[in-house]
Amino acid sequence: MKILLTGANGQVGFELQRSLACLAEVIATDRNGLDLSSNQATQSCIAEHKPDLIINAAAYTAVDKAESEHDLAMQINAVAPTVMAEEAHKLNIPLIHYSTDYVFNGQNSQPWLEDDKVEPINVYGETKLLGEQGIASKNAAHLIFRTSWVYGQRGNNFLLTMKRLGVERESLSVVDDQIGAPTWSRHIADATAQIIAQAIVSGNVTEFFKANSGIYNLSGGGQTSWHGFTQAIFSQLQLQGEKVAELNAIPTSAYPTPAQRPLYSCLNNDKLADTFAISLPNWQQSLTLAMQ
Ligand SMILES: NC(=O)c1ccc[n+]([C@@H]2O[C@H](COP(=O)([O-])OP(=O)(O)OC[C@H]3O[C@@H](n4cnc5c(N)ncnc54)[C@H](OP(=O)(O)O)[C@@H]3O)[C@@H](O)[C@H]2O)c1
After folding, report:
1. pLDDT of residue 10
2. Catalytic: which of 60, 98, 102, 124?
3. For residues 84 and 34, is the Cβ–Cβ distance under 8 A?
4. Of 188, 190, 210, 252, whose CB is crowded by the most CB atoms within 10 A?
């Protein structure tokens, strides 16, 4: 089996290279190998490699910058995945893609279901939603995994920022009124690989994806605020013998950013568990593992 992977140097993409290694031949492309700002490059790359499955782990993920780079975010998050789905349909192969909790407006008090009303409140969320819709419109077999608050040991993420600031600063203020679920990039990749393994064992990969096509929430278990996440990171740092900054809780209104964030973005992961018998551990358990 041959898998074409985009975004190979990203948080999820890099972990996918690890998780997929025992399952398939992986053609791992980064921005230099395949620049998704060119639809022609995307089409040629797929035609050249003739993969059995495409996994799109690339995305424009700079949430604040997207507010002023609408067209680029739209190209990478909406147009390019739609082109991939079109090519996948032509070749009769499946596409795996990742989306976000930011497709929701945050006005909820219980975890969002896959078919709850979508209403993004920032450009990033809007472009990711258009990517989901573009893929669905092309009738290729596809799985779209909506995840949230992704962190890992590489790239730009909240864990690495807080590890750095926690030991550099005397004190730190972090918002405590945005609620969501931190998700370790490694667990997203492992879950993806296990689902692909199920498809291989089924005997017909494309039919397996066709039968299960659609959107699935895939996020860490439980919920917390950015402040709660920071507290847990600091506790781990202290266990490792570090002296950490004093931590203060502030409301979102005290930390203005170019892009508005949803206040409540926890995802209900039951559909993933019911369909594939896969659920990610509680976010605290994953964080402990990741930091160890
Ligand atoms: N990060 C989060 O908190 C979060 C939350 C919810 C959902 N998600 C979704 O989860 C998926 C994986 O996210 P992630 O956190 O792994 O993202 P990431 O670490 O930012 O990685 C994204 C990758 O996409 C690549 N990329 C960007 N523009 C490209 C282009 N024009 N051509 C080719 N590659 C390009 C980047 O390459 P460079 O390294 O060269 O820039 C980067 O390696 C994405 O679909 C994202 O929307 C992420």
Report:
1. 97
2. 124
3. no
4. 188
